Amino acid sequence: MRILIASILILASSFNTAPKLQLALLQYSGGGDWYANPTALKNLANFCNETLGTDFDPKYETVEVGSIEIFNHPFLHMTGHGNVVFSDAEAENLRTYLISGGFLHIDDNYGMDPFVRPSFKKVFPELEFVELPFDHGIYNSKFTFTNGPPKIHKHDDKAAQGFGLIWEGRLVCYYTYESDIGDGWEDQSVHKDSEEKRLKALRMGANIIQYSFTQ
């Protein structure tokens, strides 16, 4: 089933006329602001093009969780501050995407956690989010993060954590909590983060991208 996603990568690399790959933002129901951080994916795409040698289109796509359009994108990003609701059909669509080779990064922009976990029980009732050890490949794929994901914004002043959903030995979903790296990807004028923090966030984002494409 992973051929569904792998074929996108093959086509994009085989034909000069093929459209560039786009990162995609996941639109979901429930009232949460899925549209938060509008400049984040553009900056992450540009940073990956500079540091990883990728050729992403900086113009990211917005895709609904229940749409077949998600299968056009090997990498989805999900963020927000509040409620997340998946219908049965949406949960099944996302599950099919993930077990077919797709990858999802969730970044809690503060307030998502109580809703993310039950929502993803509909997607993978047999799986639990597990905290990834600091020696996991996602923290060492391009840049080294010896203590897991970087802490970009204070929130509840807890340590940043990275959790994963692992399907048949493959990381299909990576969830950053109390980190807020997506804010660090935004234009500097938005949150006024230091360049040092923004660089940490972008480097962690590049790690996620590289790991998701090469694991």
Mean of all residue-level pLDDT scores:
92
Overall structural domain count = 1
Q: Assign the CATH topology.
A: Rossmann fold
Give the CATH architecture: 3-Layer(aba) Sandwich
Number of extended strands: 7
- Uncertain spans, ≥5 residues at pLDDT below 50? 1-17
Shape annotation? globular
Structure characterization notes:
With 215 residues, this protein is an alpha/beta fold. It has one domain (3-214): 3-Layer(aba) Sandwich (Rossmann fold). Helices cover 35% and strands 20% of the residues. The protein is built from 7 helices and 7 strands. Strands 2-1-3-4-7-6-5 form a 7-stranded mixed sheet. Helix 2 (40-51) packs across helix 7 (195-214). The protein is globular. Residues 1-17 have low confidence and may be disordered.
Summarize the topology:
Blueprint: H1 3-14, E1 22-27, H2 40-51, E2 57-64, E3 75-80, H3 88-99, E4 103-108, H4 113-123, E5 130-131, E6 161-167, E7 170-177, H5 181-185, H6 188-191, H7 195-214
Parallel strand pairs: 1-2, 1-3, 3-4, 4-7
Antiparallel strand pairs: 5-6, 6-7
Distinctive features:
215 residues; alpha/beta; Rossmann fold; seven-stranded mixed sheet; 7 helices; 7 strands
Quick overview:
By secondary structure, this protein is of the alpha/beta class. About 35% of the residues lie in helices and about 20% in strands.
